[in-house]
Specification:
Layout: H1 6-18, H2 21-28, H3 32-46, E1 51-54, E2 57-60, H4 62-87, E3 93-99, H5 106-118, E4 122-128, E5 142-147, E6 154-160, E7 163-167, E8 191-192, H6 197-206, E9 216-217, H7 221-229, E10 235-237, H8 243-248, E11 259-260, E12 264-270, H9 277-290
Parallel strand pairs: 3-4, 3-5, 8-9
Antiparallel strand pairs: 1-2, 5-12, 6-12, 7-10, 7-11
Helix pairs in contact: 1-2, 1-3, 1-4, 2-3
């Protein structure tokens, strides 16, 4: 396959980012007809459809989304190289991300280090907030929030859906207190991070009326997981949140039954901040990187 014209790739990236041929034409200082022609050239060269028309909007096809990610990254790298040559070191753009201060977002840490490695022109600051109402929106450009919308005046998208199942110390796979059936949980202390509603949902759907009489309630999910690791009870978690503990055998899942979490993770930002190009690019990266985890 012949390599498509570079200019057509630049036009494609603009239409993909802005959503319409007209907007791309304004950005590129050409006519809408010229933009449409370049898209035809590119699609003909590649032999695939890159867009679907929805009214005036151009929506990327699955093939288009794959190409857009690669082309956008390549253009950013070229732009960085040119600016570095023309004006020395490129000034950093600061973004501040708010995340929950709990082990529930440990899966996000590796992703953020990868983002910083791939985007040296972005200085990423990370702050913490327990919930949406605690986020300092004077500082935060984007937040990962564990909760339930709506949040008036803010934009949000589901980031990571959660299905919860019991997790516990491996010691509960053997001996007189081993867990083999749902009814075995009645002999164990259940560890809560809320009022008990999440465990009650799990127990009800699993066919058990209630848990143990010595349940413990925590405000901090990290304490819940540590208590489970130490063998003090059984917690509810999922394969992503507890991936490291499950891989290392520190925690196990004695039962396969799972239920959707009452709350889940969302990517949130103010409607005003969402208009910033660097915020848009960060959100696109976060959504595309985190969603495959679901």
């Amino acid at each position: 396959m012949a390599f498509p014209p570079l200019h057509s790739l630049r036009v494609f990236e603009s239409v993909a980012r802005l959503g319409t041929v007209t907007a791309a034409a304004v950005e590129l200082h050409v006519t809408a007809g010229a933009v449409s022609q370049q898209l035809k050239v590119l699609q003909s060269s590649l032999g695939v459809e890159l867009f679907e028309k929805r009214g005036r909007q151009r929506v990327l096809t699955p093939d288009g989304r794959v190409l857009q990610k690669r082309v956008a990254k390549a253009i950013d790298e070229l732009s960085d190289a040119v600016q570095a040559l023309q004006g020395g070191a490129m000034p950093l753009t600061e973004l501040t991300l708010s995340i929950p201060p709990a082990e529930g977002v440990i899966w996000l840490a590796t992703l953020l280090f990868k983002y910083m490695e791939d985007n040296p022109s972005i200085k990423l600051n990370v702050i913490t907030a327990t919930g949406f109402n605690q986020v300092d929106w004077r500082k935060a450009d984007v937040a990962v929030v564990y909760g339930t919308p709506p949040w008036p005046g803010f934009w949000w998208r589901l980031l990571h859906g959660i299905r919860l199942t019991p997790v516990c110390s491996p010691q509960f796979l053997r001996g007189p207190l081993r867990i083999r059936e749902v009814s075995d949980l009645s002999r164990h202390r259940l560890l809560h991070e809320d009022s008990g509603a999440q465990w009650q949902q799990w127990l009800t759907q699993a066919g058990l009326s209630q848990g143990g009489a010595t349940d413990v309630y925590f405000e901090d999910f990290a304490m819940v997981l540590q208590a489970a690791r130490d063998g003090f009870g059984v917690a509810l978690s999922d394969e992503v949140v507890s991936a490291r503990d499950l891989d290392q055998g520190v925690l196990v899942q004695p039962l396969e039954f799972s239920v959707p979490a009452l709350h889940t993770y969302y990517c949130v930002c103010s409607e005003r901040q969402q208009e910033r190009p660097e915020v848009q690019r960060f959100i696109e990266w976060l959504m595309s990187t985190a969603n495959p985890i679901q």
